[in-house]
């Protein structure tokens, strides 16, 4: 008998299940964002700029990269794309010449507010099978974010 795998059934592998759920979720999120002409990365960055701004955080590219877990180079590339569409404004930081501050334009704020509604509606439906366990599920996901890199 080949003992390559430590699981009898594929469904016993947390990693494989996470892979499947993540792919399904991302595929459906992509569909929800088509109406807004946004990629998932663009949406996450715009929604995060809005979230952080509402919470009084001075948003820089590094703060944004750290918050979203999107690498700094990709963050910069996506922000440039959003800036070219007039959805994001980037400016030199007032005190740190190496940093850029980031803000949504008025057009970007309108777009992201509508996109957040669509994404939150989708998430509510997608995660509804968790029911009362949703909070516990979120806490477990947060604990996985502490995995050493």
Distance between the termini: 35 Å
Helix content: 55-70%
| Poorly predicted parts | none
Average of pLDDT: 94
CATH topology of the domain at 34-125: Arc Repressor Mutant, subunit A
Structural class: mainly alpha
Number of helices: 6
- Write the H/E string, N to C: HHHHEEHH
Note the overall shape: globular
* Number of DSSP E strands: 2
Instruction: Give the percentage of residues in beta strands.
Output: 5-15%
CATH architectural name of the domain at 34-125:
Orthogonal Bundle
What do we call the CATH homologous superfamily of the domain at 34-125?
Winged helix-like DNA-binding domain superfamily/Winged helix DNA-binding domain
Order of neighbouring strands in the sheet with most strands: 1-2
User: Could you tell me the radius of gyration in angstroms?
Assistant: 18 Å
By CATH reckoning, the class of the domain at 34-125 would read Mainly Alpha
Major sheet size, sense and barrel closure: 2 strands, antiparallel
What does the secondary structure layout of this molecule look like, with pairings?
Blueprint: H1 14-33, H2 40-54, H3 61-68, H4 72-84, E1 88-92, E2 100-104, H5 106-126, H6 134-144
Antiparallel strand pairs: 1-2
């Amino acid at each position: 008998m080949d003992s390559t795998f430590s699981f009898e059934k594929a469904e016993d592998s947390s990693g494989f299940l996470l892979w499947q759920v993540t792919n399904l979720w991302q595929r459906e999120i992509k569909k929800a964002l088509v109406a807004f002409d946004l990629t998932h990365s663009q949406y996450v960055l715009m929604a995060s700029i809005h979230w952080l701004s509402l919470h009084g955080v001075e948003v820089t590219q590094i703060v944004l990269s750290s918050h979203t877990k999107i690498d700094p180079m990709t963050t910069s590339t996506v922000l440039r794309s959003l800036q070219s569409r007039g959805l994001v404004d980037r400016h030199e930081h007032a005190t740190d010449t190496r940093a850029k501050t980031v803000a949504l334009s008025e057009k970007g704020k309108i777009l992201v507010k509508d996109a957040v509604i669509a994404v939150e509606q989708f998430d509510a439906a997608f995660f509804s099978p968790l029911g009362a366990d949703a909070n516990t599920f979120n806490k477990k996901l947060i604990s996985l974010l502490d995995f050493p890199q």
